[in-house]
Amino acid sequence: MSRSDTADTKTRLLDAAEHLFTEHGFAATSVRRITAEADVPLAMVSYHFGSKKGLMEAVYARALGQRESRVGYLDRLEAQAGDAPIAVPVLVEAFISSALRLTRKGNLSGAVFKQMIGRAFYEPEAGVEDFFPTEYAEAIARYKRAFERALPHLSEADVVWRMYFFVGMVAYAMAGKDVMRMTEIYQLEEAGKPEAVLRRLMPFIVAGFSAPSGEPMSGQAGALRGE
Question: pLDDT of 155-187, one tens digit each?
Fold first, then answer.
C-alpha cells in the first residue's frame, strides 16, 4: 500500500467514524459498520488505530484541532505578561476565540462538535466513560492555572466551578440551542450566530469570574438544604 493510499484510507475511516459516532454514539456503532461506510477492509481499523477506542480518540483529537489552536494564544499571552498574571477579560477572550475557531471549521459545525463531545464524555458504556482527550485536558489545566493566578483570592474549588459554568455556556452557545425559546420569543437577530452570541456572553462571563467567592458559609449551606 502506498503512502497516499494509507493516508486516504485513514481519512476515510476518520470521516466515517465521525459521522457514525455523532449520529448513533460509540456503543451503537460497530467497527464493521464504520469500515463498510468507509469502504475499506475491516483490518484497517486495527492497522491504523489499534482498536475502536483508538479510532474514537483520533476522531475527537481531529475535531478538537491542533494543540496550537487551543493553547498557542495562551503561550503568547503568558510570554507577553512575563511574571504578571494575565487579566481575566484577556483569558476569557482567548478561550472564546479558540472556541470560535471550531465553529468556523468547514466540515464540522458547532452543533455537531458539541454532540460529539457530549457523546464521548457522557455515554455510560464501558470504555467510554474514562475517555477525555489528552490535549483538551491539557488546555483546561493550563487555563485553570492562569485563572488561579489572575484570581488569587479565590479557592481552587471556586475557580474550577466558574470554569465549569464558563465552558458549559460556551458549548451551549456554540450549539445554537435555545431550550427556553427566549431568542425566538424576543426575536433576537443574532440568535443562532455563534460568534455574535459568544461576544455578548463575554462580559457576562468576566463578571462571573470577578464576583465574590461562592464558598458557602456554614449557615448558608444549611439554608440551601432547607434546614
Answer: 999 999 999 999 888 877 766 667 667 877 888
What is the C-alpha radius of gyration for the chain, rounded to an integer number of angstroms?
Answer: 21
* CB atoms near residue 88 (< 10 Å): 19
For 58-79, write each residue's pLDDT tens digit: 887 777 665 555 678 889 999 9
List, as one string, the DSSP characters of 130-187. T---HHHHHHHHHHHHHHHHH-TTS-HHHHHHHHHHHHHHHHHHHHT--TT-HHHHTT
Residue 42 is part of which domain span?
3-62
| Angle between helix 52-64 and helix 31-38 axes, rounded to 10 deg | 60
Domain shared by 7 and 50, yes or no: yes
Whether residue 194 is contained in a domain is answered as: yes
At 167, list the grid cell.
465552558
Q: How far apart are CA 145 and CA 86, in angstroms?
A: 11
